[in-house]
Write a structure and sequence with these properties.
The complex is a heterodimer of chains A (407) and B (500). Chain A contains 17 helices and no strands. Chain A is an all-alpha fold and 407 residues long. Chain A has one domain: ABC transporter involved in vitamin B12 uptake, BtuC. The longest helix of chain A has 30 residues. By secondary structure, chain B is an alpha/beta fold. Classes of the chains: A mainly alpha (407), B alpha/beta (500). Chains A and B meet through helix 2, helix 11 and helix 12 of A and helix 1, helix 2, helix 10, helix 11 and strand 16 of B.
Chain lengths: 407, 500
């Protein structure tokens, strides 16, 4: 019998939609749902984070032990702990020039890799492989950075950046062509290529080509100064030119998606592959193009880390940027400027979280929990709507996105 | 939105009550309220004079209401008996399934109401008409006294429709009541005892067949008088546009879907392919539009072979394509009307120069075409998914007819549309013909085929089993569609003689 629970959507929507992939549904939710829900997701996550702050502080927790005797104690102690922690977080993120610099430095690679993942989303692709593409880009850019000597900055730096981009693009091309030619699902192939990239990095750093002479641990020579991204606000602040590349990237992706025929093809292929095919758009071509561009942007993120922050290659230099980029792209609703805002928020949480840990002793893990909660709430908009008692803005938008893998 | 507004409906014992209305008139909503799927905000439902309240379909079933959905709720790999007992399984000792009881009950019901169904057949092997009987048996087994049939004839051949009507009559004779939901005017007059017409969620009238005719019912449904026949002058066929020769196409499972088929369409004529769905029409159209590579044979458009041509090349060679499933293949629901209007011309002047698109030109053209094709939308920037089915189809028609074409291939061009939109789409198709385009229509609606076609070919199991001129005898075409009067023609090209 028909499931009686299904009564919200109009009758026509009850019919199965054969052409609708999971990606297409997610895309609808990302681009169609109101911004309000995203903002409320962040607020909800911060509120849950506040509860965790209370739990993470033994002294505050103790006051709850005699809550019935003196409820004021518990409440004021909790309030103090929350305001102190969030206060430190805020000042660590935006409270000074160096705080702002740190926020931007943390946000820059997230913008670049997040743009890559978002571009994939718009083409209906789940690029879970940003991490591997970041590693590929970083390795290649770093290699050009330390292996070539004596080049002027105007040649060396752009060359290193472009090689990083190309390496990321090549790493994205593999799952792209596999999907286009054989139908291999990009989620599987990109996850596997993450491992390949990580272990390839480990191996390369153990070879004499990459390993710094005289060292036994896997670490490369430092990148030549001529290949480093220049500081923007003096040597005391880490703020570097990578942010300019990232913002340029956001503008470029926005133009590509909104104003170019290539972007139009990507979006049609992503939103409705079967209509794309019928309209004479090659979904295979769009898939490969999207994966190449997506990988290229992630590769830039890797180059940014090596040429702008760490100046050397060592295992784990990617720091999970590629994974955080997925959450940034989701939070930014697969919109280039949304990605910039989301990356800055995550950068601020990262930079502020360090300060919070140092000042109030609140573990920085809470920041990671908050970030994860934000993404969960964004992925479950119905939950946020229920918590805040707001109605779905339009029919169909209320469908949870995480129903299944569709295709 | 108010889908049903103050509806009064009385179904008597042993009555076939037709509920007639266009798509979006609120028929299905009303049925879902009666079946406990939706809840009414106001008003009440009475059975035998007693008010009832349904929290779920389970309550409705207990109260003696059975429903046969438009899309069957059967499990294809189960047998008939297994499907019938699903949800209300008879069990023996230890809670074991009592399959034999299920089988004997199915047999008993089949016998009583003339529903020839084998309880051990696997549902997916059965023709659609028989699957529908399984749904009816399912409802009867739960002792339904009121059966709701939601657009039951939409998937049936004319012959199967007749069989269904027989079953309905025998159910009526045994005291069952039937609520027969349809938008097909022709069907209600011979079968219904009483007809209620819905429009925009309201009952606009109730009548009995003896006192009404098609024209009157159509006006009630649409709210104005409508042309039931398409006004068109005799065709003036010109030069050959489409030549299909000995075409063979395999479906995705590798079975022969189009079997050595040949046909021709000239400029200025409408060729309609009649046939029950699933006889290779879909694959034929996909081959014509470059979406599926043929396994053999040739397709020539204006003398040029389309062998190996990709969909893009086929579109640019002057083939317009109105796909069978407009939501899946014809539109991107989340994109604006304007974007959908350039879905296959976005890269051409004036919409783009090189890779740079020109949103101004796209919007201006969209506004102009929305006016020209009477697309009712709040703005050309509105997502096309928010438009009604009729307006969505107008977007596709506008897109396809405003680019340079030689051949229009339209599959089920009016499926699911309201009478007003059907009228409009048909007029546009005839206009395209009169402007000298060759037109190929694929339709499983016999009325549509008869209304539009200058020539008709009937497709059955991937082959053309007969060819007639437009205005041919309805029953004859119906028999050909059912495959019961198979005749081999040497090829569609000499069809004129075959009609003789």
């Amino acid at each position: 019998m028909t499931d009686p629970a299904v009564k919200a959507p109009a009758p026509e929507e009850l019919a199965p939609q054969p052409g609708r992939t999971f990606a297409a549904r997610l895309l609808d939710e990302l681009t169609g749902g109101p911004v309000l829900v995203t903002v409320l997701a962040v607020i909800t996550a911060l509120i849950v984070g506040a509860v965790l702050i209370v739990f993470s502080d033994e002294n505050v927790l103790a006051t709850w032990g005699y809550f019935l005797a003196a409820p004021g104690d518990a409440l004021s102690a909790s309030w103090d702990a929350i305001t102190a922690a969030y206060g430190a977080l805020f000042s660590g993120a935006l409270g000074s020039a160096s705080a702002v610099s740190e926020t931007i430095v943390a946000a820059t690679p997230l913008i670049l890799a997040g743009l890559g993942v978002a571009l994939g989303f718009r083409a209906g692709l789940f690029n879970i492989g940003a991490e591997g593409q970041v590693i590929a880009g970083g390795l290649a850019a770093g290699f050009v950075g330390f292996w070539l000597h004596g080049l002027p900055v105007v040649v060396h730096l752009p060359l290193a950046v472009l090689v990083g981009l190309a390496a990321g693009a090549a790493w994205g091309f593999i799952p792209g062509i596999l999907k286009a030619r054989t139908g291999a699902h990009e989620v599987i192939t990109t996850i596997m290529l993450n491992y390949v990239a990580a272990y390839l990095a480990l191996y390369l750093l153990s070879t004499s080509v990459f390993r710094r002479p005289g060292r036994t641990d896997p670490i490369s020579e430092p990148v030549e100064v001529s290949a480093r991204l220049p500081h923007l606000a003096g040597q005391n602040l880490r703020l570097h030119a990578g942010i300019l590349v990232a913002l340029l990237g956001a503008v470029a992706v926005a133009w590509l998606l909104g104003r170019s025929t290539w972007g139009f093809e990507l979006r049609v292929a992503g939103a409705n592959p079967s209509a794309a095919q019928t309209a004479g758009i090659s979904v295979a071509r769009a898939t490969v193009l999207a994966m190449v561009l997506s990988g290229g942007l992630a590769g830039l993120a890797g180059a940014n880390q090596v040429l702008g922050v760490q100046y050397t290659l060592a295992p784990g230099f990617s720091g999970g940027i590629g994974f955080e980029a997925i959450t940034v792209a989701l939070l930014g609703r697969a919109n280039p400027f949304g990605v910039v805002v989301a990356a800055l928020l995550f950068g601020a949480l990262r930079a502020g979280g360090l300060q919070m840990q140092a000042v109030t002793g609140t573990p920085i893990d809470i920041v990671l929990v908050i970030q994860s909660l934000i993404v969960i709430f964004v992925a479950a908009p119905e939950l946020v709507r229920a918590i805040w008692r707001i109605k779905a803005a339009r029919g169909g938008a209320g469908q949870p996105v995480s129903k299944g893998w569709g295709s | 939105m108010v889908a049903n507004d103050g509806i009064d409906l009385i179904v008597e014992d042993g009555e076939i009550h037709a509920l007639l209305g266009e798509n979006g008139a609120g028929k299905t909503t009303l049925m879902n309220v009666l079946y406990g799927l939706y809840h009414a905000d106001e008003g009440e439902i009475l059975i035998d004079g007693r008010p009832v309240r349904f929290a779920s379909p389970g309550d409705a079933i207990k109260a003696g209401i059975g429903m046969v959905h438009q899309h069957f709720m059967l499990i294809p790999v189960f047998t008939v008996a297994e499907n019938v007992i699903l949800g209300d399984e008879p069990t023996g000792p230890l809670g074991l399934l009592d399959q034999s009881r299920a089988r004997s009950e199915v047999r008993e019901l089949s016998r009583r109401f003339g529903l020839a169904v084998d309880p051990d057949a696997i549902v997916e092997d059965l023709p659609v008409g028989v699957q529908q009987r399984v749904e009816i048996i399912k409802a009867l087994l739960r002792e339904a006294r009121l059966l709701i049939l939601d657009e039951p004839t939409a998937v049936l051949t004319p012959q199967e429709t007749e069989d269904l009507f027989e079953v309905m009559r025998s159910l009526r004779a045994s005291g069952h009541s039937i609520l027969f939901i349809t938008h097909k005017l022709k069907e209600v007059l011979p079968i219904a005892d009483r007809i209620t017409v819905l429009r925009l969620g309201r009952v606009v009238g109730s009548t009995v067949p003896a006192e009404s005719d098609e024209q009157q019912l159509a006006s009630m449904m649409v709210g104005r008088s409508v042309l039931l026949r398409v006004a068109k002058a005799p065709a003036e066929p010109g030069e050959m546009v489409l030549e299909v020769d000995d075409l063979t196409v395999l479906d995705e499972r590798g079975h022969t879907a189009v079997d050595h088929l040949s046909l021709e369409v000239r400029a200025g004529e409408i060729l309609a392919i009649a046939g029950v769905q699933g006889n290779g029409q879909t694959e034929l159209v996909e081959a014509l539009t470059g979406l599926l590579a043929p396994a053999g044979g040739t397709i020539r458009v204006a003398g040029r072979s389309l062998e190996g041509a990709r969909p893009r090349a086929v579109l640019r060679a002057g083939i317009a394509h109105v796909p069978e499933d407009r939501v899946r293949d014809g539109l991107v629901a989340s994109f604006s009307v304007a974007e959908n209007l350039v879905l296959n011309t976005y890269d051409l002047e004036p919409f783009a120069r090189g890779p740079v698109m020109n949103p101004g030109a796209i919007e201006a053209s969209a506004k102009q075409r929305a006016g020209e094709f009477d697309i009712r939308t709040p703005s050309v920037k509105a997502p096309v998914g928010t438009l009604s089915g009729g307006n969505q189809q107008k977007v596709i028609i506008a897109r396809e007819l405003t680019r340079p074409i030689k051949l229009l291939v339209a599959s089920q061009p009016t499926r699911g549309l309201d009478v007003g939109s059907i009228e409009y789409v048909h007029r546009r198709i005839v206009e395209a013909r009169d402007q000298g385009d060759a037109v190929l229509i694929v339709s499983s609606e016999l009325d549509e085929v008869l209304a539009l076609a200058d020539r008709i070919v009937v497709m059955y199991r991937g082959r053309i089993v007969g060819e007639r001129l437009g205005g041919a005898d309805r029953d004859e075409i119906g028999l050909l569609m059912a495959g019961s009067a198979e005749e081999r023609t040497a090829g569609a090209g000499d069809g004129g003689e075959a009609v003789g």
